[in-house]
Write a structure and sequence with these properties.
By secondary structure, this protein is an alpha/beta fold. The protein is built from seven helices and eleven strands.
Length: 257
């Protein structure tokens, strides 16, 4: 493995860990992720070279590892169009979702020897019998340690949401977490529309509520706003915020003071 290039598509938590392991094995790592978060970028090893497109990764890598969610933009990310961009004899590893890779493209790549191996824990029935497919059981999250860690993670994230309004790993809301800098917090779910922050700020200003800190994140049509205030927020102000057009829900989370 030393001296070979590993291309990683998707540089979230798992992609970053894979990059770190590959570097420790002496590999060169080329990464691509157009939507990398700030937290993920901080955890990414500095030796990872940045690619500007998927095809750039395919052309330069001896091994390509996929770590992306299945969405409309990632469905059939590897297809018949770009299968020819792989280095001859490359190995494709897919531990994301089966829909990220088009099965017919994989078969074409294996039969033409453009791909040497396809390694996945999401094998479809059409791939199971192929000599170039290495099918693994999808058991990564089924160990005792993984289940314990998952349970702890769920409890920690739920407690953080209930006590501080912070969101992590929600299906239809963005990740949004802000350290408390003032004792009075508002957690507001709202539509992702223009001037939402302005309307919230103006309402608080009219009520003589000073904003100490504010965070707003969006995901598709939904947005989430955290506001830390320097003084208590009266019930009338909570009602006024709840009546703003585009506001879906308001939670008041004062700390113990």
């Amino acid at each position: 493995l030393p001296g070979h290039t590993l291309g990683i598509i998707g540089l979230g938590k798992i992609g970053s860990l894979v990059a770190d392991a590959a570097i420790r094995l002496g590999m060169n790592v080329l990464g691509y992720d157009p939507h990398i978060t700030v937290d993920a970028a901080w955890s990414l090893p500095s030796q990872v070279r940045k690619a500007g497109a998927v095809d750039e990764v395919l052309k330069q890598s001896h091994f390509v590892s996929l770590h992306v969610p299945l969405a409309e933009k990632t469905r059939h990310m590897i297809d018949a169009r770009n299968i020819e961009h792989f280095r001859p004899g490359a190995v494709l590893l897919n531990f994301s979702r089966d829909g990220v890779v088009a099965d017919d493209a994989v078969v074409e790549g294996l039969n033409s020897h453009r791909l040497r191996w396809y390694v996945t824990d999401f094998p479809s029935a059409g791939l199971l019998g192929h000599a170039g497919v290495i099918a693994l059981p999808h058991l990564g999250a089924s160990t005792r340690e993984a289940e314990d860690n998952s349970a702890i993670m769920v409890v920690d994230q739920l407690r953080d949401y209930l006590e501080h309004g912070n969101l992590q790993n929600a299906v239809n809301f963005p990740d949004a977490a802000m350290a408390r800098e003032a004792p009075y917090r508002l957690a507001i779910a709202n539509a992702n529309v223009p001037d939402m922050l302005g309307a919230i700020s103006h309402a608080l200003g009219r009520g003589k509520i000073n904003i100490h800190n504010m965070l707003n994140k969006s995901k598709g049509e939904m947005a989430y706003t955290l506001v830390d205030a320097d003084s208590p927020v009266p019930a009338a102000m909570l009602d006024e915020l709840g009546q703003l057009k585009g506001v879906l829900a308001v939670r008041y989370l004062p700390a113990d003071v």
